[in-house]
Design goal:
Layout lengths: L2 H19 L1 E5 L2 E2 L5 H15 L5 H11 L7 E4 H10 L6 H8 L15 E6 L3 H13 L6 E8 L6 H10 L11 E4 L4 E4 L2 E7 L16 E5 L7 H4 L7 E6 L25 E3 L3 H17 L1 E11 L25 E3 L3 H8 L7 E8 L5 E13 L1 H14 L6 E4 L16 E4 L4 E13 L3 H15 L5 E2 L5
Parallel strand pairs: 1-3, 3-19, 4-5, 4-9, 5-8, 9-10, 10-11, 12-14, 16-17
Antiparallel strand pairs: 1-2, 6-7, 7-8, 12-15, 13-14, 15-18, 17-18
Helix pairs in contact: 1-2, 1-3, 3-4, 3-5, 6-12, 9-10, 9-11
Length: about 475
């Protein structure tokens, strides 16, 4: 069979594993669920770019077929890693025997049992809210995990529901919603791919009793940024809500969480937490990777950030001095709290980190330039080899991506699910000084990090096999 025919034959198998067993099939950290033939082939081609060796669907298909013979529990299984590891050393085992050993934790007595879905409520339905909604709807395909039950917004006038559904259906940056969306104005619901989402109109959290909508033990994701401290965010802890997750940097004693770095420090009884900022999520994982290997004595991050809705389209009054100037017509110097947030997410790093930011006239994808003084001298080749390996096999592989494309530009990373993408070609190393160029989709990549945190606190973040290298 041709590669296209093989990829096509993989689609129903991947879908069945996802629906019936809650297994997400990956190739080097990239999900193959709901992907087209072209997307599956492109994902395999990525492995060649990063790992430096060919990975074909002819190699991964036998491992996919082997998974169908196993009694699997909810998990994420990387058939790209299975194929690469088997190629390096099969130990004389057949593909099925090798696969069974590599994913042993997902089978038998150790496997996780399927759980009932956990209710999720979105408070606010702006840029991040709608992307998080798309991700939650996508992940509901297995019928387990997270279930988006409601969205809370202020009523916006005539045809409010229709307009909000339209914004979910079409996005100028991220494209069309993959699936069907219908509106039931009489019942105040939006149905997306079979998921019925109640739209609740309220001006304040105190107005809502979520149990009246059949919602219980839910996680509420606050996308408004209106409340940043524990007292304000605790206003969301109404009947039916168990935990609150903020999609902005928090103040005071609210934990700022970067998934992959400090999510395992969340206390089981913690009811209020923050996912920090998109820039914090972009710089902290590679900063940890560098600190663990080389030590970091000090650093500075300069972010070149796409403009956002808190800026003006044309010059007009704004409470901030420069953000009142036209966003699509200017580069705008502004502040960033990402550097100071590092201390919350990575307290073991004692090095001082400073930061500054410039907003530029692109609608999405930003770049952080991370300049580090290391604890020892190294070479550019050594740093790139280390970061490439981190992106492929470490516990940070869902946070850190790696590109060697010589002509990469910002629009190439729209839709990236990683928190940070290291640009190999732009990396500079001179003795104990290193400069990393880190691309990040400040909308979509950050939304993926938010969902990962919600999955973790919900108890539905499933293990990945083969296990990452620690």
């Amino acid at each position: 069979m041709s590669r296209e025919e093989i990829a096509e034959s993989m689609i129903p198998v991947i879908g069945k594993l996802h629906r019936e067993r809650d297994v997400t099939v990956l190739v080097h950290s990239r999900s193959l669920v709901n992907k087209s033939v072209v997307s599956i082939l492109k994902t395999h081609r990525f492995a060649r770019q990063i790992a430096g060796e060919e990975l074909s669907v002819t190699e991964t298909l036998p491992f996919l077929e082997a998974l169908t013979t196993l009694d699997l529990g909810p998990s994420q299984i990387d058939i790209g890693m299975l194929a690469a590891t088997y190629r390096a050393d099969s130990g004389g085992l057949s593909v099925r025997e090798f696969t069974a050993r590599a994913v042993a934790g997902a089978t038998g007595a150790d496997k996780i049992e399927r759980r009932a879905p956990r209710d999720v409520v979105l408070y606010g339905f702006g840029r991040i809210g709608r992307l998080v909604a798309r991700l939650l709807i996508e992940k509901a395909g297995s019928g387990n995990g997270l279930r988006l039950r409601a969205v809370v917004v202020r009523r916006g006038g005539d045809q409010d529901l229709v307009k909000r559904a339209s914004l979910l259906r079409r996005d100028s940056i991220h494209g069309q919603f993959r699936g069907t969306i219908t509106v039931d104005e009489a019942n105040g619901t939006i149905t997306a791919n079979g998921n019925v989402i109640k739209v609740i109109y309220a001006n304040d959290p105190s107005e809502i009793d979520y149990t009246a909508y059949g919602i219980k033990d839910a996680i509420l994701i606050d996308n408004t940024g209106k409340w940043r401290d524990r007292q304000g965010l605790s206003e969301h802890l109404r009947p039916g809500i168990d935990k609150v997750v903020l999609t902005a940097p928090a103040k005071g004693d609210v934990p700022n969480i970067v998934h992959g770095v400090n999510h395992d420090t969340i206390k089981p009884d913690e009811r209020v937490l923050s996912c920090a900022s998109c820039t914090t999520n972009a710089i902290v994982p590679p900063l940890k990777a560098m600190a663990d290997e080389y030590g970091v004595l000090r650093g500075h991050v300069e972010t070149v950030h796409s403009f956002t809705n808190d800026q003006n389209l044309l010059d007009n009054f704004h409470k901030a001095d420069r953000r009142g100037r036209s966003a699509p017509l200017n580069m705008v110097i502004t502040e960033t709290g990402a550097a100071s947030a590092v201390a919350k997410a990575l307290p073991e790093l004692k090095a001082p980190i400073t930061g500054s930011s410039i907003r530029v006239p692109v609608p999405d994808v930003s770049i952080a330039i991370l300049s580090l003084r290391l604890g020892r001298e190294t070479t550019r080749e050594e740093v790139l080899d280390h970061l490439r390996e981190v992106s492929l096999t470490s516990p940070l592989k869902r946070q850190i991506d790696f590109t060697t494309a010589p002509d990469a530009v910002s629009s190439d990373f729209i839709g990236s699910r990683h928190a940070s993408i290291i640009d190999a070609g732009a990396t500079k190393v001179d003795g104990d000084n290193a400069i990393l160029y880190l691309w990040y989709d400040n909308e979509y990549g950050y939304s993926c990090q938010v969902v990962r945190v919600v999955q973790y606190v919900s108890g539905v973040e499933y293990p990945t096999y083969p296990a990452p290298v620690v």
